[in-house]
Amino acid sequence: MSDNSLRVVWVYPDLLSTYGDQGNVLVVERRARQRGLDVARLDVRSDQPIPTSGDIYLIGGGEDRPQRLAAERLLRDGHLFQAVNNGAIVFAVCAGYQILGHEFVNDLGQRQPGLGLLDVTTVRGTGERCVGDVLADIDAPLGLPALTGFENHQGITHLGPTARPLARVRFGKGNGTGDGTEGAYNDTVFGTYMHGPVLARNPQIADLMLKLALDVNALPPTDDRWYEALRTERIAAAQQPA
Amino acid sequence: MAGNSDPLSPRAKLAVTAGKAVAAASRAAGRGSGSVIGGRVALKLDPDLLARLAQNLDVVLVSATNGKTTTTRLIAEALGAAGPVVSNALGANMPAGITSALAGGSEARYGVIEVDEKYLAGVARDTDPKCIALLNLSRDQLDRAAETRMLAENWREGLAGSKAVIVANADDPLVVWAASSSPNVVWVAAGQMWKDDAWSCPSCGGVMQRPGEDWFCGECGFRRPTPSWALSGDHVLDPHGSAWPIHLQLPGRANKANAASSAAVAAVFGVPPQVALERMYQVQAVAGRYDVVQFMQRDLRLLLAKNPAGWLETFSLIDPPPTPVILSVNARGADGTDTSWLWDVDYTRLTGHPICVIGDRKLDLAVRLEVANQHFQVCEDLDEAVRAAPPGRIEVIANYTAFQDLRRRVGN
């Protein structure tokens, strides 16, 4: 963490803020402040340079054309690579997750290069869109409780050897590859198909990012009773699809 | 052109009669107004029925993400000055519901029709409208609806060859993009509080610049057109620069914007703004929206808000703190089953109001409010939430099926 405040960068809300993606930013901010941290939140539009000194970078989901534009502009900008080299944490959702990979299929039906910060490749699925509540078990080394979220995507994301699946689905589609994986991570870079406010349903992931950013093993406790109530309800709902 | 002088074909008559019979049966069985099922049966018997019913009417279509039902009502009221009007006043806004509504108005001269955004292009093709009002476009039910920009694209293609006068909001870049393929557009500066679906140029994808009320794309030159009508505070400015006061019983900036657009539509049919606006005053509540009902010795104002843009406009019209606010959210089929949009709503605007949350997804609201650092209470149902507030006004804001639940509970 640089100087005294936690720097949270929201990447390209003008393009990638479609499904309540601001929620992840708000949850990180709130939980950091509850631990007594100063938070500097930087919303960076796609005509502005990405700062390299951020601690946590959040990237949202978006529609197909904005996704293409965001990938082009992030590659041209190039600063996110430097930030990751500096040890920054990146957490990306849906379209943003696909952009972190080597390649995805854009709105023109073309294969388009991503940032390659995650060893994943996305193709377009030919079946029905994956839409609905998801319940998954987070990769054991991360030591986190079950992942609950909502997915809505057409992409199918294949993991390469250096990416670990973020979770394995019990209910829902996740990466859509049929092997049960959902999302991917490598060191401090995370991607998931769970929509924008995934951190509202999984505040422990927000806390994991704070711990990584602060380089600590534990954080002061917070009153999580509403998060827990919501988690219980949504986990039950995922097990009984309508 | 006016009046249904041309008799319907025998097949069309049969279809209308059959549709009405089915609607009556559905009503008798307690399944709502029956307008949609009746329209479906009629359209099956005569697929061209909508076009046939429309051919003897001067048709106005109204579409938008928010404000369709209210604006349809305001326009219908205004055009009543020029002749009898038939309208789908209850908000059944897909082809079957529209057909059913028109079948009930054989004496009408004007057809004022609310159209679901996805069906606008098709209904415009079928009904050969004289005028189309386009109010706004923003994110809504993304788990089942088309992408917002795709809807604008769909409108743009569908309206490209239309002979209709398009009355369109100059302050919404997506609406401007959709309307500007038409040769005959009347631009209305109706304003729009929600801006987060149009930061990216709908034409070229460049980043939109938005100094003050203006907007333009720095890359391709796509920009806000010069409006001929405008909403200015409590007045409508007409193309001659005259300012006409807006007196509405309906609250809020958004309804003033709806009135401004409605006045521009009325003028297309020769109804002057002062006449149109006076008639709009008669509109009290629209399908229960904005109604104030007595319930357990309190005055509940029922407010429908279905998406982030709608919530933003609604927060701007509620009484100031300490007026209590009840929020109710469901996520059933008609609402969209994804509650992510709650995170696009700025709940810090409720600071100072006592807040109770109810509805199927009250826990989503609870976490949302917790993160917004608001004080709130989670209640089991409306009765418990109302009991928690002192006698007096309570603002009740709900999304679609939650609103229906409320109306049922308060007997509205």
Automatic annotation (TrEMBL), chain A:
The keyword Cell wall biogenesis/degradation applies. Pathway: Cell wall biogenesis; peptidoglycan biosynthesis. GO terms for biological process: cell wall organization; cobalamin biosynthetic process; peptidoglycan biosynthetic process; regulation of cell shape. The keyword Repeat does not apply. Residues 7-202 form the CobB/CobQ-like glutamine amidotransferase domain. GO terms for molecular function: carbon-nitrogen ligase activity on lipid II; glutaminase activity; transferase activity. InterPro entries: Class_I_gatase-like, CobQ_GATase1, GATase_3, Lipid_II_synth_GatD. The active site is at residues 94, 195. Keywords: Cell shape, Cell wall biogenesis/degradation, Glutamine amidotransferase, Hydrolase, Ligase, Peptidoglycan synthesis, Transferase. Substrate binds at residue 129. It catalyses: beta-D-GlcNAc-(1->4)-Mur2Ac(oyl-L-Ala-gamma-D-Glu-L-Lys-D-Ala-D-Ala)-di-trans,octa-cis-undecaprenyl diphosphate + L-glutamine + ATP + H2O = beta-D-GlcNAc-(1->4)-Mur2Ac(oyl-L-Ala-D-isoglutaminyl-L-Lys-D-Ala-D-Ala)-di-trans,octa-cis-undecaprenyl diphosphate + L-glutamate + ADP + phosphate + H(+); L-glutamine + H2O = L-glutamate + NH4(+). Pfam families: GATase_3. It comes from the Bacteria. Its EC number is 6.3.5.13, 3.5.1.2. The lipid II isoglutaminyl synthase complex catalyzes the formation of alpha-D-isoglutamine in the cell wall lipid II stem peptide. The GatD subunit catalyzes the hydrolysis of glutamine to glutamate and ammonia. The resulting ammonia molecule is channeled to the active site of MurT. HAMAP family: Lipid_II_synth_GatD. Belongs to the CobB/CobQ family. GatD subfamily. Forms a heterodimer with MurT. This is Lipid II isoglutaminyl synthase (glutamine-hydrolyzing) subunit GatD.
From TrEMBL, chain B:
This is Lipid II isoglutaminyl synthase (glutamine-hydrolyzing) subunit MurT. Keywords: ATP-binding, Cell shape, Cell wall biogenesis/degradation, Ligase, Metal-binding, Nucleotide-binding, Peptidoglycan synthesis, Zinc. GO terms for molecular function: acid-amino acid ligase activity; ATP binding; carbon-nitrogen ligase activity on lipid II; zinc ion binding. The keyword Metal-binding applies. Residues 65-185 form the Mur ligase central domain. The lipid II isoglutaminyl synthase complex catalyzes the formation of alpha-D-isoglutamine in the cell wall lipid II stem peptide. The MurT subunit catalyzes the ATP-dependent amidation of D-glutamate residue of lipid II, converting it to an isoglutamine residue. Its EC number is 6.3.5.13. Forms a heterodimer with GatD. The gene is murT. Residues 304-403 form the Lipid II isoglutaminyl synthase (glutamine-hydrolyzing) subunit MurT C-terminal domain. Pathway: Cell wall biogenesis; peptidoglycan biosynthesis. InterPro entries: Lipid_II_synth_MurT, Mur-like_cat_sf, Mur_ligase_cen, MurT_C. The keyword Glycoprotein does not apply. The active site is at residue 338. One of its GO terms (biological process) is regulation of cell shape. It holds the Pfam family MurT_C. It comes from the Bacteria. Belongs to the MurCDEF family. MurT subfamily. Zn(2+) binds at residues 201, 204, 217, 220. It catalyses: beta-D-GlcNAc-(1->4)-Mur2Ac(oyl-L-Ala-gamma-D-Glu-L-Lys-D-Ala-D-Ala)-di-trans,octa-cis-undecaprenyl diphosphate + L-glutamine + ATP + H2O = beta-D-GlcNAc-(1->4)-Mur2Ac(oyl-L-Ala-D-isoglutaminyl-L-Lys-D-Ala-D-Ala)-di-trans,octa-cis-undecaprenyl diphosphate + L-glutamate + ADP + phosphate + H(+); beta-D-GlcNAc-(1->4)-Mur2Ac(oyl-L-Ala-gamma-D-Glu-L-Lys-D-Ala-D-Ala)-di-trans,octa-cis-undecaprenyl diphosphate + ATP = beta-D-GlcNAc-(1->4)-Mur2Ac(oyl-L-Ala-gamma-D-O-P-Glu-L-Lys-D-Ala-D-Ala)-di-trans,octa-cis-undecaprenyl diphosphate + ADP; beta-D-GlcNAc-(1->4)-Mur2Ac(oyl-L-Ala-gamma-D-O-P-Glu-L-Lys-D-Ala-D-Ala)-di-trans,octa-cis-undecaprenyl diphosphate + NH4(+) = beta-D-GlcNAc-(1->4)-Mur2Ac(oyl-L-Ala-D-isoglutaminyl-L-Lys-D-Ala-D-Ala)-di-trans,octa-cis-undecaprenyl diphosphate + phosphate + H(+). It comes from Streptomyces longwoodensis. HAMAP family: Lipid_II_synth_MurT.
